[in-house]
Amino acid sequence: MNVRVLTFASASDAVGGAEVTLELAPGADVRALKERLERDYPSLGELWHRLAVAIDGEIVPDEAQLSDGCEVALLPPVSGGAPAEVAEALGSKRDATRLTTAPLVADDVARAVAAPTCGALLVFLGNVRNHHAGRGVASITYSAYESMAEQRIRQIESELEAQFEGLRIAIVHRLGNIAVPESSVVIAAASPHRDVSYDANRLALERLKKEVPIWKREHYEDGEEAWREEESLTVERATP
Questions:
Q1: Rg of the chain over CA atoms, in angstroms?
Q2: Is residue 166 helix, strand or coil?
């Protein structure tokens, strides 16, 4: 059977490309796939303890079975600590894209969740800062496993709205190269009362940084660059 393997961030560096197709024996599992990949790309060996593996957009254990034609993604830890295009997309919140290469406009995201029933509307902006670990930062390039990232962001929104009565929330993350001090993410939370907006906005950011396959590569003022991979991908559920 044939399996399509997608790689991201440091895993892509180890493989030397973003995609590879492998032929495996019928009934092979993720563990067998890892063994094959490590034979073909030895530098992956030192990364396995850090990588999550997803089949068709769902993170799975080593025992998970592969099927012919499935899409497997090697997912390094995420960074931890996202104009008219956005406004049009958010016109209908449920059909909106959550990822964009366009500059983010906070007012557009806020309008997507505003409602007469909501007396509080809190907007969080995550901006590219000019330093990290004592090094000057010029810009950051964000990349994503886009289909899975879209699905995870929508699920986070839906679960938070189920958790908090009356909440309306939207998360939009920008991809591509973003210079200091532009925004990489906007989270807008509207609710009948302010406490819910504060709590939901913070939870949305924490879950975004842990659960959504978005990576960042920092470009430093001295010309060097590096992946920021700090938080292993997890899947959480909101508390009912």
A1: 19
A2: coil
Q: Mind listing the pLDDT tens digit for each residue in 31-88? A: 999 999 999 999 998 899 889 999 999 999 999 999 999 999 999 998 664 333 444 4
Taking CB atoms within 8 Å and a gap of at least 24, the contacts of 44-50 are 44/11, 44/14, 44/15, 44/74, 47/10, 47/11, 47/14, 47/76, 50/76, 50/77, 50/229, 50/232
CA contacts within 13 A on the Cβ side of 165: 1
Give which of 221, 220, 191, 186 is closest to 204, Cα–Cα: 186
Cβ-count burial 137-160 (b if 16+ within 10 Å, e if not): bbbbebbbbeebbbebbebbbebb
Identity (one letter) of the amino acid at 239?
T
Judge whether 161 and 169 are in contact, CB under 8 Å.
yes
CB 128 within 8 A of CB 175: no
Smallest CA-to-CA distance from 90 within 78, 76, 104, 70 is with: 104
Is-contact 212 54, C-beta < 8 A? no
Say which residue the tokens 């670990």 belong to: 133
CA dist 121 to 29, 102, 199, Å? Answer: 47, 23, 12
Distance of alpha carbon 169 from alpha carbon 118, whole angstroms: 11
DSSP label at residue 44: G
Q: 10 Å Cβ neighbour count for 101?
A: 11
Tens digits of residue pLDDT in 116-131: 999 999 999 999 999 9
